[in-house]
Amino acid sequence: MSDVPATTKRRWLPRSMASRLYLIIFAGLMLAQGLSFALLYMERMQSATAVMFNTLEHDVGTSVAVIDRLPAAERSRWLNRLERDNYFYILGSGEPGRQLATERSAYVTQLIAKELGPDFHVYGNTISMSPERYQVHFTLHDGSPLTLQVTPHMKPLASWLPFVFMLQVILLLICTWLAVRLATRPLSTLAAAADAMTPTADGPRVSQEGPTEVARAAKAFNTMQDRIARHLKERLHILAAISHDLQTPITRMRLRVEALDASPEQQRIIDDLHELEHLVREGVAYARSAHGGSEAPVRLDLGAFVESLVFDYQDMGRPVTLTASVTATTTVRAQALRRVLANLIDNAIKYGGGAEVEVLRTMSDTLSVTVSDRGPGIPEDEWEQVLQPFYRRESSRNRDTGGAGLGLAIASQLIVSIGGELRLAHREGGGLQAIITLP
Questions:
Q1: Are the beta carbons of 424 and 435 closer than 8 angstroms?
Q2: What is the pLDDT of residues 361-377, one digit of tens each?
């Protein structure tokens, strides 16, 4: 139960490391950029407001003094000259309103009153709040009313500022992408090299250039491949030596037993010795299958190759048929592929009474060879197990049938060594299908 909330919390995160790094770095940079922009904007507005208040009181004081000293007939001509972005003057008592509603309007009125003094009888009232609009009223020395109408509004941003901000965001995106790419590309290369590793550990070498950490990881990976290759070669040599050393005494024992008088006991010993020889040969064959032998890959027509193999079985009177075939070329180790198909066909004949082979081109532009039978099949939960060495299903693949539990394991490992894939599937109508996929 404790794992569920943690899993739920991580659902919003992207699955790949590159996407997570990209999200974290970009979000952090954008947050820092936004915070810097907000602080800069606040500082700018505070400075602009302080300057505006200081300028407003002196400008209004000067303007009202000028209007007060002008003759009444000339005052209207000066009003346009004294108008500003957020306030202008009206000759008259203005509009009726209510008490000043905001602290800012009261503060501005107080500054103006302080600047002009009590002779002008300064007071203010609010006209509206959406948008905010208020008036400051004066009484000139000749008794004429004068009104200052103020419509406060934020200073607009410079027209070029949004473009600069967008340019900064684009630069952040590019820099974040480059940083994440440089950080994750070695991991992608290492993962690709690990996926390309074959059972022989002769996959592509990883470049050891770049930052220190990347170079160390690449060197460790290449060293690991070398160690695995040496281990596999040592295993093959050991098994080959054991096979050679075992076959000699087994042969001597069989010759000695055959020299004895014929009896049921003698035949049972000979059968056991044959089974022991078969087991030794299959064990060595499994070890060699990881390397695919020393055979060089060749380019061949897969359809013609399979057709030739099927004809060989038919010439021997074996129940094998070719149900479908296409003309397509591929590069494989021919002898290794022949052994894989022979193992699968032999299994189909042994446990299904016959084999049906077809060669097709898949939707993903790969080639597949399918060997089908009408036997009892294998339960789906055992498909992976039967591809492991020395696994035998006691109901059918026991010693009485001569199985050593290595046929499918050898086929699977050989296919991997030549760059293909082997999988099992149920056959419609009953039976089993062994499907080989080749590039």
A1: yes
A2: 887 778 899 999 998 88
